[in-house]
Amino acid sequence: MKTGLPRATPESQGISSAAVAAFLRAAEQDNCGLHSFMLLRHGHVVAEGWWAPYGPDDPHMLFSLSKSFTSTAVGLAVAEGRLSVDDPVLKFFPAEAPRRPSANLAAMRVRHLLSMSTGHDHDTTEYLYRRKDGDWPRAFLARPVAHEPGTFFLYNTGATYMLSAIIQRLTGQALLEYLRPRLLEPLGITGATWETCPRGVNTGGFGLSITTEDIARFGQLYLQQGVWQGQQLVPAAWVAEASAKQVANDANTDPDWRQGYGYQFWRCRHGAYRGDGAFGQFCVILPEQD
Fold first, then answer.
1. pLDDT mean over 219-239
2. Could you tell me if 217 and 188 are in contact, meaning their C-beta atoms sit under 8 angstroms apart?
């Protein structure tokens, strides 16, 4: 294994081993089907485990947990002065824009892609896949925008793809390659892969594969306000903005799905927030408990 995070007993970091065991028993009783689990406190791994056939060195599909990495790339590009969250989306896609964009499409900003408040009333993803020529940006921009951007929350994986496309247009690099020297390599994340659209743009909203400990490193970075081994990898202001409530999602009845949405992070109860992928790919960050 590559050099890992420091390990410690739960009790040495103020956690009861019995409480961890109780959590695992509850997960088993609820048939959660865990593939892996890792718990950190005060920067130390205090509990970890994998269920066969999964192991610590195996990359795992993150599904929509990928979105939080895409958001981080946007934050890094903002810090480099390459764009602003208030830039119009159409600014980056002049050739793909409709000849007569609607007022709502013209009003769509990067922050609306980040916060899933583009104004669409249906997820655009299926329409990207339907596009026979593989021009996903054109397919996204062709969809009707029913609501004024910023006023309506709709989980929209196509919006995250557009963030990835923007990064590639600004930098000349695919999202994954842009992140390698700025985020992944400093965190010690190696061997990451990311799916692409037919035209070679990383899918952004899904498709990233890394290991369980890599996910933990990413969560610990956010818990530490973007600082890693004394280096400010991600601006603290971006960490605060991305993890804050940017748009209300009150329509959901489940309390952990109606705490607000940030920049590709979900808010949770108890002051927590999370990266969240299909089938339970979670990176849950609890600042109050460290």
1. 98
2. yes
How far is it, in rounded angstroms, from Cα 189 to Cα 15?
27
* pLDDT tens, residue by residue, 168-192: 999 999 999 999 999 999 999 999 9
252 C-beta neighbours (distance < 10 Å), count: 12
What are the CA-CA distances from residue 146 to residues 100, 108, 142, 181, 288 (Å)? 15, 12, 12, 39, 39
The continuous run of DSSP H or E covering 209 comes out as: strand 208-210
The answer to whether the CB of 197 falls within 8 A of the CB of 203 is yes
Token pair of 275 as six digits: 């990266």
Q: Helix, strand, or coil here: 98?
A: coil
Q: End-to-end alpha-carbon separation of the chain, Å?
A: 26
Comparing CA positions, the residue from 44, 20, 46, 45 lying closest to residue 34 is 20
Instruction: Show the beta-strand stretches assigned E in 17-154.
Output: 36-41, 44-50, 60-61
At CA 165, angle to CA 159 and CA 170, rounded to 5?
A: 130
Which of 275, 265, 273 has the alpha carbon at shortest distance from 62?
275
Is pTM beyond 0.85? Reply is: yes
Ramachandran assignment for 271, one of left (phi > 0), alpha (psi -120 to 50 degrees), beta (any other): left
Using an 8 Å Cβ cutoff, are 133 and 90 in contact?
A: no
In angstroms, what is the C-alpha Rg of the chain?
A: 19
Instruction: Give the integer Cα–Cα distance in Å for 68 and 241.
Output: 13
Three-class SS state of 139: helix
Task: State the pLDDT at residue 4.
Answer: 87
